[in-house]
Each structure stands twice: as structure tokens, then as C-alpha cells.
Amino acid sequence: MHADQIATPTGQDMKRGSEMNEISIINDGAIYVEDELIVSVGKTDEVLAELRRKNITKFDQVIDSTGSAVIPGLIDSHTHFLYAGYRLNEFYERVSGSSYMQIMQNGGGIQATVDATREVTYEKLKQLGLQRLNEMIEQGVTTVEGKSGYGLDQETEIRQLRVLQELNLAQPLDIAVTYLGAHAVPPEFQHNSEEYLNLMIDEILPQINEEKLAEFVDVFCDEGVFDYEQSQKLLEAAKKLGFKVKMHADEIANLNGAGLAANIEATSADHLIKISSEEIAKLSEKKKTVATLLPCTAFCLQENFAPARELIDNGCAVALASDYNPGSSFTCSIPLIIALASFKMKMTMGEVLTALTLNGAAAVNAADKKGSIEAGKVADLVLLKYPDYRYLMYNTGSNIVKKVIKSGKSVFEK
Q: What is the pLDDT of residue 110?
């Protein structure tokens, strides 16, 4: 109670266009939590008066938030955090001028991480995952999407998904699990991508469905990976089995991936560096798909940034995420995302907050339960060391998280 400011978007679904800048502000605020859920939010005196009327006068814990702004738990809705093997030399090759595709063609890129991940043990993979999740908690992340995609064979992909499911139980963060076997064409199928596609559809997806190992299925629809028709075939097969679908789209070249995402009503279309104005119009018209932008990736690849302003100004819902991975974005830095989105993508701080909370929740199909500070939602909260949420941008590049509460319980304090 006595938070200098409670700052949150509101609602049960994604916010589009100008709605993204609508942030509810409560000064001298309080939040009453019971059984992991938010019961009441408002000014401290009003919340306490309401509780007295209900004869609630004793609390298991009282947190004095004087001097702090409180925001919803942050949601990193696109990551590849579970892998083995780093690509340090490749990073410096790229900084020196080699392109992402050139590195892939020379045996680097995704395949380098695939080789290392195929070799690592289950327990080592779990240990690596825990270390990275702890990094995220310290930055205010309470829900994260985690993808497979560094196995590209049935055995390793299933192992990755099982580790993700176990990690979901073993630590505080909620993990939305995504199967991304279509991250690249493995070398054993290099000249027959259709055969690999059929393996995923006929054998791997049914096993994942039977074991309930993933909620989402994703595909890398781009130049040198999977084309429009192959992506459509995979995602339609996934939807028939009951999976929700996502897409890596329009990152390296425009194959109309965002258009496919809109047509197939994907939960999110991600990257979108090369998205066309026609696709933006389609995303706006269909209203089912969150445009998830990954500014750290564009920054590390020295690419143009996705057109956040055009997307928002045309009524689309935009989320922001880290794309944490060992190749194109070896960072889960929320402060870096905020700085790039603000200064390079021209998003307002209200839009950034919505993109990292309510719209991030929509991108993992959880906006009815998370992403805002409202009665009935999960008590995922972040206390900042400053009294106004806009310090997230103003204290540029710095982690100003003071305390993280997940499902009503403190999980990090600085």
C-alpha cells in the first residue's frame, strides 16, 4: 500500500492503436491480494475502507510501497532461452560485416546451436534454463514464452519441450511453451524440406499433442527457411490438432508471412522488420494477431527496426519481446528493449508499458488472466525504485526493478 503510483493498462484483451497509450494511474495506491489473485485496487484509503466494511483487518503481509511505482509483471513473449552452446565468434563475424544468411550458409547460425543442444544432457539443459530464468526475474519478468527449435530432430525437440515443462514447475516464472521444430531445415533434410515438414506433421506434432508438451506451434517463414505454402501447411495441421499458432515472419525478406499470420488468425506474428503496408492493413482488419516486435534483434543484426509507429497508427496491437537467443539477440535486457522502442521506434512510454504487459499477455493467450493490475487477475507485480513508471525510459538502460511479486509472493528483492 501507499504506492506513489500504480500504472497499468486495463482490460481482458490486447490493446490496439491509440488504446495502447491509455494507462490507468492511481496515486497513493494499494492492491489487496488473496489466494494469488488481485481482489481490490485503488487509492490506499479507499481500499482499506472497503476491506474494513468486509471485516478484513488483519493481513498475512503488508508491503509499504512508499516511493515506488507499481506496474504489472512484465511478459517476454518471444524467447529461445533454452539451448546449449554460445556463438561468440559468429557474433564478431557479423559485427565485422558478414550477414546472418552468410553465416548460416557457412555452417554457423542456428545449426551451430543445434549441434551443441543435441549433445547436452537433460539435466545440464535444465540448469542452463534456470540460470537464464533467474536473469529474467531480476528484470521484472513474471511470464516468459520459451521455444524449442534447437534440436530439429524428434528426440532433441521433445527433450527441450519436456525440460521447458519441468522448468515451468521448478521456479516462479510462468512459461508459455512453443514447439519450433520449423526453426530451420536440418542438414539431414537439407535437400528435401518437404520430407522434414511431413515428419513434423505426421509424427512429431501428434506426440507433442499426446504428451501435452506445448501450447503453441511456431514456424520460421522466411528466405532460406520455410516458404509461405510450407508454413501454411504446418500451421493448419497444428491448428487441427488444437494448438495455437505463432509465426516468425518478414524478418529477413518479405514472403507475406504477416499476411498469412492474419489469415490463419495466429496468436502472434513476430519480427516484422520487412512487413509491408498491405500486411499491416490486414493485421489491423483481422484484429486477432498481436504484432510482436523484437528491437534487440534488429539492433544486434544492424537492421532497420520494425515499423512500430505505422503498426500502432494503423490500429494494430503491438507487443515487445527480447528474442533471447545465442545468435541474433544474446540478451534478455528489458531496459534495452525499452530504450530501443522509445528512441528508435518512437513508441511512447504508455505504449511500451502496454506492449510489455497486456499485449505481451495477449501474445501468449493470457490477457484474461495477466498483463494488468485489476481485480480478478493474477497478482504479478513489479515495484520500481522510483515513484513514476516513466523512469523506465528516463533512467536509460538501467534496471530499476526493486521487488518482484509473482502470484502474490515475493520472488525477488534488491
A: 84
pLDDT at 107: 67
**What is the extent of the structural domain holding 58?**
3-72+370-413
Rounded mean pLDDT of 183-199?
Answer: 94
**Number of domains comprising the chain:** 2
DSSP 8-state class, residue 36: T
Residues 144 and 133: beta-carbon distance below 8 Å: yes
- Is the same domain home to 45 and 141? no
248 is in an annotated binding site: yes
- Has 87 been labeled as part of a binding site? yes
Q: Which amino acid is at 71?
A: I
Same domain, 154 and 231: yes
On whether 55 is known to bind a ligand per the annotation, the reply is no
Domain shared by 109 and 50, yes or no: no
Residues 24, 135 within the same domain: no
**271 in a labelled binding site:** no
Q: How far apart are CA 48 and CA 133, in angstroms?
A: 35
Q: Please tell me whether 2 is known to bind a ligand.
A: no
pLDDT for the residue numbered 91: 87
Q: Examine the domain organization and report whether 325 and 381 are in the same domain.
A: no
CA–CA distance, 243 with 407 (Å, rounded to integer): 26
Annotated ligand binding at 150? The verdict is: yes
Do the annotations mark residue 80 as ligand-binding? yes
On whether 323 is known to bind a ligand per the annotation, the reply is yes
Judge if 376 and 349 occupy the same domain. Answer: no
Domain CATH code at residue 185: 3.20.20.140
Q: Are residues 186 and 322 in the same domain?
A: yes
Question: 245 has which bridge partners?
Answer: 217
**Spatial distance between the Cα atoms of 238 and 216, rounded to a whole number of angstroms:** 9
Is residue 94 annotated as involved in ligand binding?
Answer: no
Q: Quick check: 100 pLDDT over 90?
A: no
**Helix 334-343 and helix 349-356: axis angle, to 10°?**
140
One-character DSSP codes across 114-149: HHHHHHS-HHHHHHHHHHHHHHHHTTTEEEEEEE--
All cell numbers assigned to 296 = 534487440
Strand 74-76 vs strand 244-249: parallel, antiparallel, or unpaired?
A: unpaired
